[in-house]
Specification:
α1 crosses α7 and α7 crosses α8. The protein is globular. It has a five-stranded parallel beta sheet with strand order 3-2-1-4-5, sandwiched between helices. The chain has one domain: HUPs (Rossmann fold, 3-Layer(aba) Sandwich). Helices cover 37% and strands 11% of the residues. By secondary structure, it is of the alpha/beta class. It is built from eight helices and five strands. α1 links the parallel β1 and β2. The longest helix has 16 residues.
Length: 227
């Protein structure tokens, strides 16, 4: 069985790839150079894809910085040191407009070329930053659309399934699952605002959620945070 797996190089997408591999899929990892300020994550994606034995790994250039509208794709400060209430208080400025819709559309195109019926994405609706394109209802709607949008779907040769194995997990659950699957956490990168050497800030929402996940799981995060 072939599957396209979206891979940013972060904890969640890396765990998702490990799950897909563990379930017997031949995985084709898909990353995006979309103008993100934390482009160092692409190096992490390449490391993870190689370590987990992906059948193929491609990085698609797509410059979302031409639109901006996000702290990840424009000259907007990344929020730091927010508490849980602040993180859950609305959609943060690190939300990239329609990012998962764009990414899943490209994944769908590659899946059709590969004659793959399965797409894996590491979205999470529990310990996350409130992004609207990480919710189950979005994924369900995209899957319905996907089966209307492709030649393979219209001809009845395949039915696309969007897999979200992490969607109902806490960050601690994700850390435990990754650990059980043998993921080398040193290969991953989660920070939205790393320094020039790629060292994570330790204070952005993504770093804080990751650190909390490791603490709650009772495991040590091997990354060297600046704070």
């Amino acid at each position: 069985m072939k599957a396209v797996c979206l891979l940013s190089g972060g904890l969640d997408s890396s765990t998702c790839l490990a799950i897909a591999r563990g379930n017997g899929y031949s995985c084709y990892a898909l990353s995006f150079d979309y103008g993100q300020r934390h482009k160092v994550e692409l190096d992490a994606a390449a490391r993870v894809a190689a370590a987990l034995g992906a059948e193929g790994h491609i990085t698609v250039p797509i410059n979302l910085r031409v639109f901006g509208g996000s702290a990840l794709t424009a000259d907007i400060d990344v929020p730091k040191s927010r508490d849980a209430a602040e993180m859950s208080g609305g959609i943060p400025v690190t939300y990239v407009p329609a990012r998962n819709t764009v990414f899943l559309s490209i994944a769908l195109a590659w899946a059709e070329v590969l004659e793959a019926s399965d797409i894996f994405i590491g979205v999470n609706a529990i310990d996350y930053s409130g992004y609207p394109d990480c919710r189950p209802e979005f994924i369900e709607s995209f899957e319905r659309m996907a089966n209307l949008a492709t030649k393979a779907g219209v001809e009845g040769r395949t039915r696309v399934r969007i897999h979200t194995p992490l969607i109902a997990m806490s960050k601690a659950d994700i850390v435990r699952t990754a650990h059980s699957l043998g993921l080398d956490f040193r290969l991953t990168h989660s920070c939205y605002d790393p320094d020039a050497s790629g060292r994570p800030c330790g204070l952005c929402d993504s770093c804080l959620l990751r650190k909390k996940g490791f603490a709650d799981a009772g495991l040590e995060d091997p990354l060297d945070y600046r704070a």
